[in-house]
């Protein structure tokens, strides 16, 4: 449960009878908030002047202040004015007054009161007003917590991103310095290798930036999606053709298994991103001379794209974290394979955009099959 | 130019092949012999048959703490071998530590010097010279 299991209520009124009555009604009153999945208990403290109410607000930080309009020393409105301007939504003030005029309500609200309770009120009226305030407080707390979590996730993402961008920069800078100072001797081949490696690291860096842009487009929802019926078989074949050179170089056969054209409603670019990421991985993590089998199937409202490779495979604990941002499995077998660590995270985000998902079945040193299921996007 | 250093055999361990290649070029240019390893396992295998004069170890390899583990294993096998630990961790995460024995709070860090990545070559050679003399 939340840290708000208990809400502290402070009642400020100069009539001892009113203080006792509110205490009796609210003490131990459990506020059930099924909408936000919370049950809140109330504790009640009292103050008989505005001055002592302000003191208690400072000392005990109540969540709800039930504040009488007409108090002996400073008035309820004065109290409102002097309340610490703390964080938005951490304390709500409910004004209580016998002068139940619209004007009073407006004045109080303008000065920061959350709600208004006209005297005399029934226990149920009191409970309802307090319940409303409690719901508001719980929601505000949840929103604050979510925002904090989001900031944390964002911060971690950017830290890792910075690392992933700095590593190739450092490598390229190092090579340039050596080349510049001619400190690797007289053999031109040594410098050629450094230039090749620099270009490879640049390629990796560009891939990371492109993946990052894909990810940003998906997550921001800013890009206008162009949903249209697509022949999935033709689209998959086109993606496979794009990897033909890379596959040939490593003697990897890619076969497409689909009996007939498959019509599927999707955004062409999003579908391409999914196919390219799966195919790219199936080649990168394959063995030379291996195979890639792409199988397309359809049921009533889903299509499934299965990409099976004969590569290095994954251990179960590796498979479990594979789809998170920047996860790259580091081991002997993957050390020389470049990757941004974002490809499968992007695939999963896109699959979920189509109310689908991605899963992997894998056996170490035998191969992996990545299966993406997608539901037709409502066109 | 300062005096040429005493040639030494230096083991460099890092999973970044570019870092390995660059350090190798620079150290060989300075007159040292260099052996490289790309992982904790490779380094251990190498240490079973060789006794380098000094080791340069990257902190984060396959596992985030491989460097710490390797330093520890080097210490067990060759207590006198100077170790330089290199890492990009401090700059990026703010997680700070220093090389033992200065850092008494973290006695498990078994290294004689700690360098932040990207490593300045001049700084690296200065540390190597200092540790080989000491």
Structure commentary:
The complex is a heterodimer of chains A (379) and B (134). Chain A has 379 residues and is of the alpha/beta class. In chain A, the strands form 3 sheets. Chain A has a 6-stranded mixed beta sheet. In chain A, strands 8-10-11-13-12 form a 5-stranded mixed beta sheet. A two-stranded antiparallel ribbon of chain A has the order 7-9. Chain A has helices at residues 16-26, 50-60, 76-82, 102-110, 123-181, 188-220, 232-242, 244-249, 268-284, 316-321, 343-353, and strands at 6-12, 30-33, 38-47, 64-68, 92-97, 115-118, 227-231, 253-257, 263-267, 291-298, 302-309, 357-363, 367-375. Chain B has 134 residues and is α/β, with parallel strands linked by helices. Helix content of chain B is 40%, strand content 18%. Chain B has helices at residues 17-29, 40-49, 66-77, 89-93, 121-133, and strands spanning 9-13, 33-37, 54-58, 83-87, 113-116. In chain B, helix 3 links the parallel strand 3 (54-58) and strand 4 (83-87). Chain B is globular, with a radius of gyration of 14 Å. The A-B interface holds A 159, 162-163, 166-167, 170-171, 173-175, 177-178, 183-185, 190, 193-194, 197, 201, 330-332, 335-336 and B 15-19, 21-22, 25-26, 29, 38-39, 41, 61-63, 88, 92-93, 117-118, 121.
Quick overview of this protein structure:
Chain A has 379 residues and is of the alpha/beta class.
Number of domains of chain B: 1
Number of domains of chain A: 2
Strand order of the largest sheet of chain A: 2-3-1-4-5-6
- Structural class of chain A comes to alpha/beta
CATH architecture descriptor of the largest domain in chain A = 2-Layer Sandwich
The greatest inter-chain interface is formed by:
A-B, 25 and 22 residues
| Strand residue content of chain A | 15-25%
Proportion in β-strands of chain B = 15-25%
Largest sheet of chain B: 5 strands, parallel
Main sheet strand line-up of chain B = 2-1-3-4-5
CATH superfamily of chain B: Response regulator
Care to count the β-strands of chain A?
13
Q: What order do the SSEs of chain B take from the amino end to the carboxyl end, as H and E?
A: EHEHEHEHEH
CATH-assigned fold name of chain B: Rossmann fold
CATH class of chain B: Alpha Beta
Looking at CATH, the homologous superfamily of the largest domain in chain A is Histidine kinase-like ATPase, C-terminal domain
Helix coverage percent of chain A:
40-55%
Order of H and E elements of chain A? EHEEHEHEHEHHEHHEEHEEHHEE
Rounded Rg of chain A:
32 Å
Q: Which spans of chain B have pLDDT < 50 for at least 5 consecutive residues? A: none
N-C termini distance of chain A: 41 Å
């Amino acid at each position: 449960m939340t840290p708000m299991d208990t809400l502290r209520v402070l009642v400020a009124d100069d009539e001892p009878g009113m203080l006792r009555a509110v205490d009796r009604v609210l003490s131990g009153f459990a506020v059930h908030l099924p909408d936000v999945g919370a049950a809140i208990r109330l504790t009640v403290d009292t103050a008989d002047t505005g001055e002592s109410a302000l003191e208690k607000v400072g000392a005990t930080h109540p969540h709800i202040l039930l504040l009488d309009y007409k108090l002996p020393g400073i008035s309820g409105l004065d109290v409102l004015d002097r309340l610490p301007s703390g964080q938005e939504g951490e304390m709500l003030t409910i004004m209580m007054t016998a002068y139940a005029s619209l004007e009073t309500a407006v004045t109080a609200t303008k000065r920061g009161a959350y709600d208004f309770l006209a005297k005399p009120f029934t226990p149920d009226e009191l409970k309802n007003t307090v319940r409303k305030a409690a719901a508001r407080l719980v929601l505000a707390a949840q929103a604050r917590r979510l925002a904090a979590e989001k900031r944390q996730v964002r911060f971690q993402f950017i830290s890792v991103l910075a690392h992933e961008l700095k590593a190739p920069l450092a490598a390229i800078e190092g090579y340039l310095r050596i080349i510049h100072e001619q400190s690797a001797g007289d053999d031109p081949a040594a410098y050629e290798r450094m230039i090749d490696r620099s270009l490879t690291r640049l390629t990796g860096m560009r891939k990371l930036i492109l993946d990052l842009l894909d990810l940003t487009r998906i997550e921001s929802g800013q890009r206008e999606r162009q949903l249209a019926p697509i022949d999935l078989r033709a689209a998959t074949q086109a993606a496979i053709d794009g990897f033909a050179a890379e596959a040939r170089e490593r003697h990897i056969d890619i076969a497409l298994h689909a009996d007939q054209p498959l019509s599927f409603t999707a955004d062409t670019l999003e579908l391409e991103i999914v196919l390219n990421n799966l195919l790219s991985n199936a080649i990168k993590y394959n063995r030379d001379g291996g195979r890639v089998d792409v199988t397309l199937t359809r049921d009533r409202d889903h299509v499934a794209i299965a990409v099976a490779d004969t590569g290095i495979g994954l251990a179960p604990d590796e498979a479990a974290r594979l789809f998170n941002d920047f996860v790259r499995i580091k081991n002997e077998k993957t050390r020389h394979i470049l990757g941004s660590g974002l490809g499968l995270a992007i695939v999963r985000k896109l699959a979920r955009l189509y109310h689908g998902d991605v899963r992997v079945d894998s056996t170490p040193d035998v191969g992996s099959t990545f299966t993406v299921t997608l539901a037709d996007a409502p066109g | 130019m300062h005096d040429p250093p005493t040639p030494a055999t230096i083991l460099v361990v890092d999973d970044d092949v570019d870092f390995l290649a660059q350090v190798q070029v620079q150290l060989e240019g300075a007159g040292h012999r260099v052996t490289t390893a790309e992982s904790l396992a490779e380094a251990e295998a190498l240490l079973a048959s060789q006794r380098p004069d000094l080791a340069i170890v990257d902190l984060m390899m396959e596992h985030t703490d491989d460097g710490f583990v390797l330093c520890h294993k080097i210490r067990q096998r060759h207590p006198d071998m100077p170790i330089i630990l290199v890492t990009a961790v401090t700059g990026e995460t703010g997680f700070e530590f220093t090389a033992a024995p200065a850092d008494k709070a973290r006695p498990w860090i078994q290294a004689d010097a700690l360098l932040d990545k990207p490593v300045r070559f001049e700084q690296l050679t200065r540390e190597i010279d200092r540790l080989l003399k000491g």
